[in-house]
Every structure is written in structure tokens, then in C-alpha cells.
């Protein structure tokens, strides 16, 4: 590595994890990015929830003159990742996780930060050739435009059966927009691999002579004759939800925990979270203690502790309760769809 100089670094942070790094997410350059890297003498080394780009020849890199970004494929190794993240499946709309990806880039920021949020980043995936069934009477010219400069890369009209056949085999993978006349119809990501094999994409527009006019100041890493050593960060938030402790008792006393309470307390502060109690509705049913406020999920408890104790009893007689984990199923309440819960089962 002595002949290479560090240039751009990528990192995905996540509030759930104790070290603030989204360790289930792995980054690697796409095949198109690998070609650009070879052309401009770049090397990528993957790291935990990110990676580092290096260059060998500063003058060669300063000649970067393409409109295409450096795309990095993101794969996810944890099935529960979206469960523990601040993500609302309703944002998918008519899409599914198998037909879409999460897309992030650096275009909208005046600093080396990646966006948008997880809920706003879902993009439909399209193969190089696809067809769209249109309604009768839509006699208009359709076009596919590059998302950076809005240049048309394809145009056409529907056939007699109102089917629009689109062929983008000559175009590189990336983000595009479908227009009907001057009206935006769809944002999508052109991809030659199935969406099921790609969790997401991070697109870095590094700058250079072609891209610079379309990027905000502070965003690019190639500015005129300068190579900036920038660290691009994507920050994802942990899910917050209402916690429900379901306390099962081995005692035959059906009122065993009627006089108990669950409380959340800060280790190094005076903050508290109250829980309301619902008594069992039958034999073998649990006592349910529900938090009054939504609580952020976390890999480790951190600053909060949760206890089951008898009301008005000595603080020494209390039971430490487990923390909600990301593998727990988050379910909306049937009566309040926006209200989500983490159910924690405790057997005493």
C-alpha cells in the first residue's frame, strides 16, 4: 500500500449498535465502479460498515471527467436489520423489498454526508430491458433521463397495444428517471443483477470537470486542481417503539404481580420511563407492562436500566429486566396502526 494514498472513506453509522457502526452492512464497488477504478488508478479496501478508496497517481485522478458516479453495492447479513432500524414498511408503497433497493448519494449535501434517510431512499429496480403497460389514450413521448444532468438517454412511444418497450442496454447501471412529456413518472435504479441480491447502493459523485457544476459546495472530493480527503458518512437511526413486558408467573396465585410495577431509570441521571399494567385475562396469561413513551432499541442497555419491583417496597427487592433486541418482532397495534411494539417475554 506504500504506493497508494488514502482518498475517500465510506462509513455507515447506526444508532442501534454499541460501537455506532452498522456491522451487518458490507460495501463493495459495483462492476461499473471497478472499471472506473481501473481507469483512474484507484484501489478499494473494505472495512467494518464501510471502506477506503486509495489512489496511485494524483494527476491521473484529477483528470476524472465523467458524469457517472462511483457506485458501491451494499449487502446486508442480518435479516432483522430493518426491524431494528427506523424504517416504516409503508414507505414501500406498491414496491417490495425484492423489487427495490435503498439508494444513498452525496449530491444533496454541502458536506461529505450521505442521504436521504432510510424511509426516503427506496428506489424501484429496473433491468436493462423492460416494458410498461399504459392506459389507452396516453399518446405522449416518453423519455429516460439521467438523474444528474437530466439528459435524455432514451425516448419512445407506446405501441398499438399501449405497451412501452424500453431498452437501456447501452446505458451503465445507475439512477434514472422516467418522464411522460415533461412530467416525472418514476425514479428507478438500472441494475443488471436482481434486486434480491443487492440491499442498497451508495453513489459517490466525486466531482471533476463534468460533475462539479451540478454538485453543492463541500460535497465533491475533486475540486479543480485539489484532491480532498473526505469521509462520507451515512447515519441511520435505531427504531423507537413502545415496549411491552409480558411477565409470566409460575405461581398459582392469579394476583401474584398485581402489586408490582415496571420502571425504566437512567444509570447516570434522574430520567424515568413509566409503564402501565394490564392484568391477565385468563389462566396462564401474562401481566403486561407497557411503556408510556417509545424507547429506542439498542444492542446493549447503555444508559438505561429496567426493573420489576413491588410498589412502595425497598429498592433492594427488584428484578432486572432484559432489553428489547432487534430480533424481536415489531407489530403495529390493530387499533392504532402507527403504534409499534417490541414484546419482551419474561418467565419468573
Structural commentary:
It is built from three helices and 26 strands. With 348 residues, the protein is mainly beta. The strands form five sheets. The protein has a nine-stranded mixed sheet with strand order 2-5-14-6-7-13-12-9-10. Strands 18, 19, 20, 21, 22, 23, 24, 25 and 26 form a nine-stranded mixed sheet that branches. The chain is globular, with a radius of gyration of 26 Å.
Provide a brief overview of the structure.
The protein has 348 residues and is mostly beta strands. The model has no long low-confidence stretch (mean pLDDT 89).
Radius of gyration: 26 Å
Order of strands side by side in the largest beta sheet? Answer: 2-5-14-6-7-13-12-9-10
Mean pLDDT: 89
- The count of strands amounts to 26
Quote the beta fraction.
Answer: 35-45%
Counted by DSSP, the helix tally is: 3
Helix content: under 10%
Q: What structural category do the secondary elements indicate?
A: mainly beta
Low-pLDDT windows of residues: none
How is the main sheet built? 9 strands, mixed
Can you write the helix and strand succession as a string? EEHEEHEEEEEEEEEEHEEEEEEEEEEEE
N→C terminal distance: 57 Å
Shape: globular
Secondary structure layout:
Layout: E1 5-14, E2 25-29, H1 31-39, E3 42-47, E4 50-55, H2 58-62, E5 70-76, E6 100-105, E7 122-126, E8 129-133, E9 142-146, E10 152-156, E11 163-167, E12 174-180, E13 183-190, E14 200-204, H3 208-211, E15 222-223, E16 226-227, E17 231-236, E18 240-248, E19 260-266, E20 272-278, E21 287-291, E22 295-296, E23 304-310, E24 318-320, E25 330-332, E26 340-347
Parallel strand pairs: 1-17, 6-14, 7-13, 18-26
Antiparallel strand pairs: 1-4, 2-5, 3-4, 5-14, 6-7, 8-11, 9-10, 9-12, 12-13, 15-16, 18-21, 18-22, 19-20, 19-23, 20-21, 23-24, 25-26
Amino acid at each position: 500500500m506504500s504506493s497508494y494514498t488514502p482518498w475517500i472513506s465510506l462509513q455507515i453509522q447506526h444508532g442501534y449498535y454499541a460501537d455506532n457502526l452498522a456491522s451487518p452492512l458490507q460495501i463493495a464497488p459495483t462492476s461499473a465502479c471497478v472499471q472506473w477504478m481501473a481507469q483512474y488508478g484507484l484501489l478499494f479496501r473494505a472495512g467494518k460498515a464501510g471502506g477506503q478508496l486509495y489512489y496511485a497517481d494524483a494527476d491521473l485522478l484529477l483528470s476524472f471527467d465523467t458524469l457517472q458516479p462511483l457506485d458501491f453495492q451494499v449487502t446486508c447479513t442480518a435479516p432483522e436489520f430493518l426491524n431494528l432500524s427506523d424504517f416504516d414498511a409503508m414507505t414501500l408503497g406498491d414496491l417490495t423489498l425484492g423489487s427495490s433497493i435503498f439508494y444513498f448519494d452525496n449530491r444533496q449535501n454541502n458536506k461529505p454526508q450521505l442521504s436521504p434517510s432510510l424511509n426516503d431512499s427506496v428506489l424501484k429496480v429496473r433491468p436493462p430491458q423492460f416494458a410498461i403497460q399504459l392506459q389507452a389514450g396516453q399518446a405522449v413521448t416518453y423519455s429516460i433521463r439521467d438523474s444528474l444532468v437530466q439528459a435524455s438517454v432514451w425516448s419512445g412511444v407506446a405501441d398499438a397495444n399501449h405497451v412501452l418497450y424500453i431498452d437501456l442496454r447501452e446505458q451503465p447501471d445507475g439512477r434514472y428517471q422516467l418522464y411522460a412529456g415533461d412530467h416525472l413518472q418514476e425514479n428507478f435504479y438500472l441494475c443488471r443483477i436482481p434486486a434480491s441480491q443487492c440491499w442498497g447502493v451508495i453513489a459517490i459523485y466525486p466531482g471533476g470537470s463534468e460533475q462539479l457544476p451540478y454538485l453543492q459546495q463541500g460535497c465533491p472530493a475533486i475540486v479543480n486542481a485539489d484532491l480532498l480527503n473526505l469521509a462520507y458518512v451515512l447515519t441511520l437511526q435505531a427504531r423507537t417503539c413502545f415496549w411491552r413486558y409480558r411477565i409470566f408467573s409460575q405461581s398459582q396465585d392469579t394476583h401474584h404481580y398485581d402489586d408490582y410495577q415496571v420502571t425504566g431509570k437512567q444509570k447516570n441521571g434522574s430520567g424515568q420511563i413509566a409503564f402501565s399494567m394490564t392484568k391477565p385475562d385468563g389462566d396462564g396469561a401474562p401481566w403486561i407492562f407497557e411503556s408510556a413513551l417509545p424507547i429506542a432499541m439498542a444492542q446493549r442497555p447503555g444508559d438505561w436500566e429496567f426493573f420489576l419491583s413491588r410498589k412502595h417496597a425497598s429498592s433492594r427487592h427488584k428484578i432486572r429486566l432484559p432489553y428489547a433486541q432487534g430480533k424481536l418482532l415489531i407489530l403495529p397495534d390493530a387499533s392504532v396502526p402507527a403504534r409499534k411494539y417490541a414484546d419482551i417475554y419474561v418467565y419468573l
